[in-house]
Amino acid sequence: MRRIVGNLYGPQVCHLPGLDIGRAYRGTEGEFRLGGDIVDVFHYGTGYTSLAVLDISGHGAPAARNAGLVKHALRAYASRGFDARDCVRALNRLCIENSAFEADEEFFATLFFAIIEPSRRTMQYVSAGHDAAFLIARQGVQALRVTGPIIGLTDSDAEFDHSVIGLDAGSIVAAVTDGFSEARNASGVFLGAGAFADIIVRLQACDAERQADEAIRHAYEYSNKLLHDDVAALVVKVL
């Protein structure tokens, strides 16, 4: 089982041309991954890099199966030359049709999906109901706006839009699943998504992997080591 799940989440990719990449994960049952929270990094074509932070409804093997479907569908669409918006539009249609075919009425997902251009100067992204993604640059911290609904909710392509942002050397793109923001302390107070950006800013001088690890560790300790949902984080630093 560990080998199967390991193949789904893929090898740890720490460096790509011009990028320092950090990924981290912690499940409600510890480090073993078997659920719908996934971070994927894909380098393809003539230097493009796609980034996906995904939180699928449900838990356990069914959620992991759907996560695998989403991961490889996004890679396929991106490698065919689709832009970020068309990748997500195609994915949404696939998820709706797959749910209907397999009678899986509970297949929904939030998704942050981005494509970094080969020049590393721009990034196009779609945030499908995912409100915990940030750009950290010289100008400060920018929350990356939601550009569309949750995946699997509507079959209207027009509902999904995209945004394009510039990337300079030193810029950081960071996103985390809602297990972070919904981590609760002993008083029942939610950690909140803003705490994730605060950690990344505080550790700006560190490599991306340490930033992601520290964010996950903070949520785990904040919740008194009792997370109620899985947490997956992605940090990408432009070199």
Low confidence ranges: none
| Overall mean confidence score, pLDDT | 90
Cα radius of gyration in angstroms: 17 Å
Say which CATH homologous superfamily is assigned.
PPM-type phosphatase domain
N-C termini distance: 37 Å
Biggest beta sheet attributes: 6 strands, antiparallel
Identify the CATH class: Alpha Beta
Could you give the order of strands across the largest sheet?
1-2-11-10-7-8
Structural class: alpha+beta
Indicate the overall shape: globular
CATH topology (fold) name: Phosphatase 2c, domain 1
Strand content: 25-35%
CATH architecture: 4-Layer Sandwich
Query: What is the number of helices?
Result: 6
Please provide the ordered H/E string of secondary-structure elements: HEEEEHHEEEEEEHHHE
Could you outline the blueprint of secondary structure elements for this entry?
Blueprint: H1 2-9, E1 15-16, E2 19-26, E3 37-44, E4 48-56, H2 60-79, H3 84-102, E5 109-116, E6 122-128, E7 133-137, E8 140-143, E9 163-166, E10 172-176, H4 178-181, H5 194-202, H6 208-222, E11 231-238
Antiparallel strand pairs: 1-2, 2-11, 3-4, 4-5, 5-6, 6-9, 7-8, 7-10, 10-11
Helix pairs in contact: 2-3
